[in-house]
């Protein structure tokens, strides 16, 4: 059902977003991959079949960059927002600097907000928006207060937009722990230990791969009867 659809993936050059781009291309969509680093965009487009994708350099922290991109992109069907950055977890509210905490809303929350605002006039009937949250909105460990707040705000934005943007559909995916470059700032030994510990606790016995999560975005784009929903793909993490 994504045959001949135009799909914009903001944050599509790596990780979950790139897996969504690959899946959409497999289903016959044309994908526009956008992210902030030109080399990442070029590499992502180059890894997809020739002619199936185009790329654009967009910094979602910049309203000007986002507006200029959507002014140029032309009519399209689906917007996927997976742009993200690592959040410093385990920071109690009493210890985190307020400006730093505020700053982390810029990319994931205000970036998504700016994107949907600029994208809406370009979106065709029958299309959809799929945003990205995280399990800390549902099950925040101590020290995750501001990360949980960002994720919770995105879920609320999704439900509000499902009414405001109707008949366009708006949904959000909530990934659990996924092996992507998002974790590259953690030294490899410590990262492997974190992944092993989490895998041992999860009912499914492993952490997620980008394709596991991409499946939910693809389904939400295809299924014309789902809107305003948060889909958790976490291997059972919110249950443990
Ligand atoms: N991986 C996990 O365990 C996990 C768990 C829960 C939620 N999530 C969320 O899922 C989303 C995707 O995560 P991921 O694991 O796929 O991360 P990733 O592999 O690090 O990919 C992040 C993507 O965002 C792009 N990006 C970063 N800053 C940007 C900016 N200012 N403007 C535009 N694009 C930007 C990156 O490309 P450039 O560097 O070229 O800009 C890249 O394409 C994020 O919101 C993340 O927080 C991930």
Automatic annotation (TrEMBL):
What single Pfam family name could you report for this chain, choosing any that match? adh_short_C2
Keyword flag Aminoacyl-tRNA synthetase: no
Domain of life of the organism encoding this protein: Bacteria
Q: Which GO terms describe its molecular function?
A: oxidoreductase activity
Task: Kindly list the residue ranges recorded as spanning the membrane.
Answer: none
| Keyword annotations | Oxidoreductase
Supply the CDD domains for this chain.
Answer: SDR_c
Task: Return the similarity comment.
Answer: Belongs to the short-chain dehydrogenases/reductases (SDR) family.
PANTHER family membership = DIHYDROANTICAPSIN 7-DEHYDROGENASE
Protein name, entry field: NAD(P)-dependent dehydrogenase, short-chain alcohol dehydrogenase family
Q: What is the lineage of its organism?
A: Bacteria, Pseudomonadati, Pseudomonadota, Alphaproteobacteria, Hyphomicrobiales
């Amino acid at each position: 059902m994504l045959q001949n659809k135009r799909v914009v993936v903001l944050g599509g050059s790596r990780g979950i977003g790139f897996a969504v781009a690959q899946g959409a291309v497999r289903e016959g969509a044309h994908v526009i991959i956008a992210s902030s680093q030109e080399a990442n965009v070029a590499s992502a487009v180059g890894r997809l079949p020739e002619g199936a994708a185009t790329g654009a350099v967009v910094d979602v922290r910049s309203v000007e960059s986002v507006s200029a991109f959507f002014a140029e992109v032309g009519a399209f069907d689906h917007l996927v927002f997976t742009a993200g950055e690592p959040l410093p977890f385990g920071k109690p509210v009493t210890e985190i600097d307020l400006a730093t905490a505020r700053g982390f809303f810029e990319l994931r929350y205000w970036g998504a907000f700016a994107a949907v605002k600029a994208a809406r006039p370009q979106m065709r009937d029958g299309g959809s928006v799929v945003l990205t949250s995280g399990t800390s909105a549902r099950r925040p460990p101590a020290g995750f207060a501001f990360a949980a707040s960002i994720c919770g705000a995105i879920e609320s934005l999704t439900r509000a937009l499902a009414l405001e943007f109707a008949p366009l559909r708006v949904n959000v995916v909530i990934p659990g722990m996924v092996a992507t470059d998002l974790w590259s700032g953690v030294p490899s030994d410590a990262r492997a230990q974190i992944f092993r510990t989490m895998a041992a606790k999860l009912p499914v016995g492993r952490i997620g791969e980008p394709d596991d999560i991409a499946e939910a975005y693809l389904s939400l784009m295809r299924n014309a009867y789902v809107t305003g929903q948060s889909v958790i793909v976490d291997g059972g993490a919110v249950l443990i």
